[in-house]
Design a protein that fits this description.
This protein is 46% helix and 11% strand. By secondary structure, the protein is of the alpha+beta class. The strands form two sheets. The chain has a four-stranded antiparallel β-sheet with strand order 1-6-3-4, with no helix packed on it.
Length: 323
């Protein structure tokens, strides 16, 4: 990985993977840096910068007070920006009335409902109202003046910037939003900064730096998600699907599990891949690693090893080694 394309950001390849796999890759990278920060303090600023971008991309706000505070901040800023557009529209209204007259064809085209054309619009209809007036002012900029066009353009730009921030404050940005893509590009740049810094500091043994980047997690097949979408997310591993999943759960095998997350990770043997989480299921503490036998989990009767997460707003990662 580190020998490829020395003068190109190698993390561009993340763009071809979906949100979930990219999130796991970056999450493991953060966990790897955090695990050795005590002996490698040069990682501290890298962790802080990467964590900030990670939280912007993937963290959802579950605290009611935080959500309320966000909505208040969003609303105040949006209202101010909306009023700014209305003032700009009023200036255009006055210019058109003074220069062309309220009975002129241009004035009627721009303001078919008088001041109500721009005074009464909601967040949902804002873009339609703004785009309509902008199109009209661009069309008649000779009659209205370049200053009116610039005034409208600036007010719309301010409003759109505020709306982008509102989208960013909502929980869980989606990859089809322009803001997600903008932040994700910053993450790609940050990952490259991390790589170059780590390689510069640990240049005596370059291969040891693979530890920071679990590329393999991107190339395994997507896992099965339980049907209980309102509860924990669950992954079932079936012995018959070993060829596809690279995992199995069968009699006589030893299974090593390591919780790579900062949340408890739950696991249990099951008859089906969609079995609901048992109240008495076992769990791994953050960072804990154990080795168990298939028989301890009920093989050969139980054909699945189920992993669960009781906190649906956060991600857990379990490293599985089957011998």
């Amino acid at each position: 990985m580190f020998a490829k394309r020395a003068f190109e950001n190698i993390f561009i390849f993340l763009l071809k993977f979906g949100r979930t796999k990219s999130q796991i890759f970056i999450y493991l990278h953060l966990q790897a840096m955090k695990s050795v920060v005590a002996t490698k303090p040069f990682l501290i600023p890298l962790i802080s910068a990467t964590q900030l971008l990670y939280d912007s991309l993937f963290t959802s706000t579950s605290d009611r007070r935080s959500k309320t505070g966000q909505r208040i901040a969003e609303t105040k800023e949006a209202i101010v920006a909306k009023k700014g557009f209305i003032k700009a529209a009023q200036a255009v209204y006055k210019r058109a009335a003074d220069k062309l007259g309220e009975s002129s064809a241009i004035f009627i085209e721009l303001f078919p409902n008088g001041k109500a054309t721009f005074n009464k619009f909601t967040i949902e209809t804002a873009n339609l109202v703004m785009d309509s007036l902008l199109t009209g002012v661009e069309k008649y900029k000779v009659q209205l003046g370049d200053d009116m066009l610039l005034l409208i353009q600036n007010s719309i730009s301010v409003y759109n910037d505020i709306r982008d921030l509102q989208i960013g404050l909502k929980s869980n940005l989606r990859e089809n939003t322009p803001l997600y893509k903008k932040i994700f590009k910053k993450m790609i740049a940050q990952l490259e900064i991390n790589r170059l810094t780590i390689c510069l500091q640990d240049n005596l043994d370059p291969e040891s730096n693979y530890f920071y980047y679990e590329e393999s997690v991107l190339y395994v097949p997507s896992t099965h998600k339980g049907k209980d979408y309102h509860g924990p997310w669950m992954v079932g591993v079936q012995p018959d699907s070993q060829e596809d999943s690279k995992l199995s759960f069968a009699e006589g095998q030893k299974i090593t599990l390591k919780n790579m997350s900062d949340k408890n990770a739950y696991y249990w043997g099951a008859l089906t891949a969609t079995e609901l989480m048992s109240p008495s299921c076992l769990f791994l503490l953050p960072g804990q690693e154990i080795t168990i036998t298939a028989e301890q989990l009920g093989a050969p009767g139980n054909k699945f090893l189920i992993f669960g997460n009781k906190d649906a707003t956060s991600i857990i990662v379990i490293k599985v080694i089957i011998k």
